[in-house]
Amino acid sequence: MNNDKSRSLLRDRNFALLWSSQSLSLLGSQITFVAIPITAVIVLGATPMESGILGALERIPFLVFGLGVGVLVDRIARRPVLIVADAIRALALAWIPLAFVAGLLTIWQLYAVALVVGTMTVFFDIAYQSYLPGLVGRDRLMEANSKLQMTESMAEVGGPGVAGTLIGLLSAPVVIVVDVISYLTSTVALLWMPADKPSRSSSESSVWVSLREGFAQVLQRPVLRWCIASTLMANLFFDALTAVFFLFLVREANIAPGGVGLIVAVGSAGALCGTFAVDRLTRALGVGPTLVLSTALPGVGTILLALVHGNSPGAIVLAAAANFVSLIGWPMFNVTVISFRQAFTPDHLLGRVNATMRTIAWSALALGALLGGALGSWLGLRETVIVAAGGLFVPMVILLISPLRRVRRLEEVEDAENVVQPT
Which SS3 state, helix, strand or coil, does residue 170 take? Predict the structure, then answer.
């Protein structure tokens, strides 16, 4: 643990190792983020419903396994969970290029890989957010999460552009090999990370008591309830949009894979800008107003996306600008909320609180993916984008009627829990 706040966390060996390995892993994941849906749409001719199912299968494991994984993570050491999850994700993803080269790849195999990778992501994400506070210290969580979020945003900028180029040179299934290598590299790096110990107090309770403790911690914190309400609606309509996003660009606007990669990369640049801007905005506007602003931007961007017509440089520019505006607000929300949750939750409850919050949030992602697939089949792709645009303004309304809108600093968030009626 590094206690010298004047020293950058990047000079701390353990955090630097974690940061560098996750940077590579996130880059690979962003390449897969483009390659798998392109494989489904172009190589396998997936329908809107099939695309929605594919997206849902990556999210459903949080709904099914999240709470149980939270209990497990609070009872055992977290580093071994991270190692095993990365290794299995690498093996699962390796099947796609192998099956493609052998001429055996089907949409059902993509479903299976998505389910396995999604399940291992449940284990990794919950263990990862619970392992980090012990690694860097709770007083440096905002700095650590900001750096990790910045890396994620940078990977989101570079990964899709690299994916578009590689897909044009090779093929969508083959470029997934890059993500396989990144997960294997992360597995090796985690072997060199410091070991952690399970929480003794967690293992003394029954599973059901442990689950209730995690739920109680979330339900008894009004701030977490307001955040969950806004996150639920944001995730629902964001993944409804994501389910048809690539179909909309490829089939409705007839944009080539290279153009799609550029659009996604520009959108990711928006997320990177949001990461850089979050500290300044929270200092200038306050945490609450920044949260409200962050939830307004996705709706505005999605409205712009609905205006994209035809395959032309102008259409690509408009779609890229729309994606930029849509994604700029997400890191503003994520950095603050995740840091708050980690900082104010006792260590022996971290796994269960993270699992409870993420299970609720990711269940909305799974439902959103199915909703987007259904709407795309029944209404049409452009109409689905319009519905998603309207829904993405709901989180802003939720935050505007909550006491969170008045919070100025992160340290004041607990004061909002004492507010019954917002004025």
Answer: coil
